[in-house]
Amino acid sequence: MPRNPDWPDHNASPAATADPTAVGATANAVDTVGRERLRLMCVHAHPDDESSKGAATMARYVDEGVEVLVVTCTGGERGDILNPALKHRSDIEQDMPAVRREEMARAQAILGVEQRWLGYVDSGLPEGDPLPPLPEGCFGLVPVDEAAGRLVQLVREFRPHVMTTYDEKGGYPHPDHIMCHQVSVAAFDTAGDPDAYPDAGAPWQPLKLYYDVTFTKERVLAMHQAMLDEGLESPYQEWMDRWEERSADRRPPNVTTKVYVADHFERRDAALMAHATQVDPEGWFFKVPLDLQRRVFPWEQFELARSLVETTIPEDDLFAGVRQPADVR
């Protein structure tokens, strides 16, 4: 992948001099903190995932001057049309890849982030008992080390201090989400190794890796009860009634970090709405008034999975332990 000319050439910066204390003198993120802008890479499976998982956090950091890059592993080609107003539109159905790219571009502009495609084909969500095999050539069947090599090249080019992805069950068991986890962890672990992927650019070691945590029971219960207290119909009643069943194939999260993002909920929702084929604008996601959300649960949540810096749990900042005193961003 050629270097994106719109990105600063971090490799040419004096601040990127290799840390002499690192193994093999491999450059790592500590070299740049306090001397240039912080950088956050968020790795997602499909276009729209970035807008439903951690979008308000990205918008907040963009506004604070952090460089944020979304890496989208697949084109979302096999996504269903979930917006009733767009169902059975032949122009959309015949060119879903182009539609998903246009939607991603609109969401990217709303959030103010950069975005790159990893270049793989959506696996779709297999359904049935037994589950059918995944389609040939899809992301879920790609060797992990191959896809990790592509992501390592982007890590070494963008040089993030912090990365986010999904837990080992993908947040939910979609094959592309599970593969996204595996590829992201492999890239985090190898991007700083000069012996790994030697043709993928100069080594760079990110300092922290997080898993996105979305609808925890704490968050759902807080908003559900607040809706009932306001005399409003809660979109989470069925969730509460079927919580154990819904959670059976998910890993209970270990929330370590809550980022205050109440002022960025509108941007989050606008970005998700930009993925018009993927959301029902009258659906459950948008039923809870923003003022109520800001009052009862003004955070987005994450699980710290890897850290090469000292930090104190609980955190309120993905860059906790990374920021230097001179760094005010």
Mean pLDDT score, rounded?
89
**Strand arrangement, major sheet:** 3-2-1-4-5-7-6
User: CATH homologous superfamily, by name?
Assistant: LmbE-like
Tell me the Rg in angstroms. 20 Å
Indicate the percent of residues in helices: 25-40%
Total number of helices: 11
- Poorly predicted runs are 1-26
N-C termini distance: 30 Å
List the helices and strands in order: EHHEHHEHEHEHHHEHHE
What does this entry look like structurally?
By secondary structure, the protein is an alpha/beta fold. The chain has one domain (37-307): LmbE-like (Rossmann fold, 3-Layer(aba) Sandwich). It has helices spanning 49-52, 55-63, 90-94, 96-111, 144-158, 175-190, 217-229, 237-241, 243-247, 265-274, 290-296; strands at residues 39-44, 67-74, 114-120, 162-165, 208-213, 257-260, 299-307. Strands 3-2-1-4-5-7-6 form a 7-stranded mixed sheet, sandwiched between helices. The two termini are 30 Å apart.
Task: Give the tags.
Rossmann fold; disordered N terminus; alpha/beta; 329 residues; globular; 32% helix; single chain; 11 helices; seven-stranded mixed beta sheet; 7 strands
Please outline what is shown here.
Helix content is 32%, strand content 13%. It contains eleven helices and seven strands.
List the helices and strands and how they pair.
Elements: E1 39-44, H1 49-52, H2 55-63, E2 67-74, H3 90-94, H4 96-111, E3 114-120, H5 144-158, E4 162-165, H6 175-190, E5 208-213, H7 217-229, H8 237-241, H9 243-247, E6 257-260, H10 265-274, H11 290-296, E7 299-307
Parallel strand pairs: 1-2, 1-4, 2-3, 4-5
Antiparallel strand pairs: 5-7, 6-7
